[in-house]
Structure formats: C-alpha cells, structure tokens
Amino acid sequence: MQLTEIDKKIIRVIQRHPPLAQAEQAELVGMSRSSFWRHVKDMEDAGVIGAQIPEVSAKKIVLKLRANCMISLNNHSLETREKFEKHIEEMDNFLECYATSGGKDYMLTVVAKDMDDYYEIMSSSILDHPTIDSTQTSFFMKEIKSTRRLPL
C-alpha cells in the first residue's frame, strides 16, 4: 500500500495518542470521523495497522528483569528451525524472537521476575532444548528509549 500524506498523519496521531477515542483522533487529523474510520479500515485491511493491544508495564507487574538472549542452533536444518520456533512461540516469557545473521541464529527478548526466575526459565525452556547448541545473554541495565512508533 502506498501511504498518502493523510495516511501518514493518521498513523502519527494513532501512535502518539492511542488512548483517545477515534472521534478525537479524527479531530486532531482534521477529518470527519467517518472519513478517518475509512482510512484506518483501509490501512488495517492492507496490514499497515495491526491489532491494537494495550501496553502493559512489565515492571509494574513484577517482571523487572529483561534480557536479550542470543541462540545458536545445533544445526540449520528446516526441521530444527521449525522445532525451535514452535517451542519459542509457546513460551510466554519470550516477548520477541528474531532470526539473525552473523554469529548467532536467533535473538530472544526475555522477561522475568528476577535472576532466579530467569535462571529457571532458561534451565527449563532453553538450555536443555534439543535444538540449541549455545546461548549468550545480555541483561538490560537501564531503559533509555523504548517505542513502537515508526518515523513518518
């Protein structure tokens, strides 16, 4: 989908003011509510705008530890990759998983209550998994910036 300037303006408003009602968002864009809704619906149908899920603070619900875990698989067969990816999909503490290039095969973003909880998650879910050769973890010490807003 080729975005028009009005589409970009709508996306900027939706990203910056998600809790506002659609009528209020339409007003910020300078459109009628029905016209705004049609543009949003078109972008949803095209897959430009996805599901709108409320953001929950991990720290406020006692998930204070966040880490990136780099994973190397023991081989690169399609069967191994599919088995690993299916396993990760089923794990709630893994927020993100990306296939990567370079020295490691995947990067996971993991949340846990504390270091003991992280150790338990890794011991029971990752370290003994038959597809995994090695892991390397970096812990987030301080959040400087965290956003899902895309520059338009």
Give the CATH class of the largest domain.
Alpha Beta
Distance between termini? Answer: 15 Å
Helical residue percent band: 25-40%
Major β-sheet strand ordering: 2-3-1-4
Give the CATH superfamily of the largest domain. Answer: Lrp/AsnC effector binding domain/regulation of amino acid metabolism (RAM) domain
- Unreliable stretches covering 5 or more consecutive residues: none
Short description, anyone?
The chain is of the alpha+beta class and 152 residues long. 38% of the residues lie in helices and 20% in strands.
Can you characterise this structure?
The protein is elongated and about 55 Å long. The chain has 2 domains: 5-45, Winged helix-like DNA-binding domain superfamily/Winged helix DNA-binding domain (Arc Repressor Mutant, subunit A, Orthogonal Bundle), CATH 1.10.10.10; 59-139, Lrp/AsnC effector binding domain/regulation of amino acid metabolism (RAM) domain (Alpha-Beta Plaits, 2-Layer Sandwich). Strand 2 (94-99) and strand 3 (106-112) form a beta hairpin. The chain is α+β, with helices and mostly antiparallel strands and 152 residues long. The protein has helices spanning 5-16, 22-29, 33-45, 78-89, 115-127; strands spanning 65-73, 94-99, 106-112, 132-139. Strands 2-3-1-4 form a 4-stranded antiparallel beta sheet, covered by helices on one side. It is built from 5 helices and 4 strands; from the N terminus they run αααβαββαβ.
